[in-house]
Specification:
- The protein is 80% helix and 0% strand.
- With 109 residues, the chain is mainly α.
- The protein has one domain.
Length: 109
């Protein structure tokens, strides 16, 4: 099985954007419904800074886990393809043996 060229951009950017958009939406929803907005703003800014500080680590971890999953899927697909190829060969051999034993050609002329 030939390996495809590695695509660094992939769908990781999509999921990163989805998560970031969800977080921004959640923050805006909290702002819209909060009573003590000044205290809330201070807490959110503090926690936001902590989150942004660790965002690179989170992204790396998600990318690593995604690569692990991708490698596992590629390996399983390779195994399935190999099993299918073996089954196809066995079926072809059995069909050939059956038709030749009955004195019939495999293809109609």
């Amino acid at each position: 099985m030939s390996e495809e060229p590695e695509n660094k951009s992939g769908h990781g950017g999509f999921w990163f954007g989805m998560i970031l958009g969800g977080l921004i939406g959640a923050v805006l929803a909290v702002f819209a419904t909060a009573d003590d907005k000044d205290e809330l703003k201070k807490n959110l800014l503090k926690k936001g800074k902590i989150f942004l500080k660790h965002l690179g680590d989170i992204r790396e971890e998600v990318e690593e886990k995604g690569e692990d999953v991708k490698e596992g899927v590629v390996e399983k697909l390779s195994e399935v393809k190999e099993a299918a190829d073996k089954t196809e060969t066995r079926i072809h051999q059995k069909a050939r043996k059956f038709f030749l034993s009955k004195g019939r050609p495999l293809v109609k002329k």
